[in-house]
């Protein structure tokens, strides 16, 4: 089943605040130059009245679950070129998740962006799973900052043994109930990528994910960008295209080239707009 007839990219980015107008403009410019068509933003730190500032020249629709001026807040930005008609939007009061249900071209789809709590709170993922289960008949794309390590061996630079958190157990149950898969590991069963670095522990981890049904995206490229000096870099990117009609295997032939091309683009854009030198 084809999701969309032209190539597009979905990016997930924990921006650590968008209160500063200059930083906000640079991030939106970065997404535009990176040719992102759907953006999942976490920790925008914008209240309801300020969230609409995210609508700019290339953004056609903004959906948001506002946080406060200093914490939380998530949003979904959709490019003007994308044909999307929303049917239902579900948000939480804490600014930690948003579900946008609608039609992407002729395909019913749920776009779910999350910024999960740092604490091991079982109810968060349990409630999220219930919302998704109630919205039947649509393809599901869940992305964002899960604040959990799903695999202690593969998602940590220093593997650690121990009992899985309640949240991880809930995530596994959710993916099982909904038939979702970690797209990165589906494509790279023997690979490793990290999206977060902890200087105190000197360890890299992957806590940002895209989980979805396999047929939603052939995934020509999916990668993570990590910088100890600047956590303000998109953590995940997914590109889907016409090969969705025939499966994602064909896309893997060009996967390495696509990843290298995208990484070069990110480096170029960072230098162009100075994200690494600007702090809020």
TrEMBL record:
InterPro entries: AP_endonuc_1, Endo/exonu/phosph_ase_sf, Endo/exonuclease/phosphatase
Site (Transition state stabilizer): 147
GO biological process, one term: base-excision repair
Catalytic activity: Exonucleolytic cleavage in the 3'- to 5'-direction to yield nucleoside 5'-phosphates
Gene Ontology terms, MF aspect: DNA-(apurinic or apyrimidinic site) endonuclease activity; double-stranded DNA 3'-5' DNA exonuclease activity; metal ion binding; phosphoric diester hydrolase activity
EC number(s) per entry: 3.1.11.2
Cofactor section: Mg(2+); Mn(2+)
Site (Important for catalytic activity): 208
Recorded GO CC terms: nucleus
Keyword DNA repair carried by entry: yes
Residues engaged in binding Mg(2+): 14, 43, 145, 147
Keywords associated with the record: DNA damage, DNA repair, Hydrolase, Magnesium, Manganese, Metal-binding
Family: Belongs to the DNA repair enzymes AP/ExoA family.
Protein name: exodeoxyribonuclease III
Organism whose genome encodes this protein: Maylandia zebra
Lineage: Eukaryota, Metazoa, Chordata, Craniata, Vertebrata
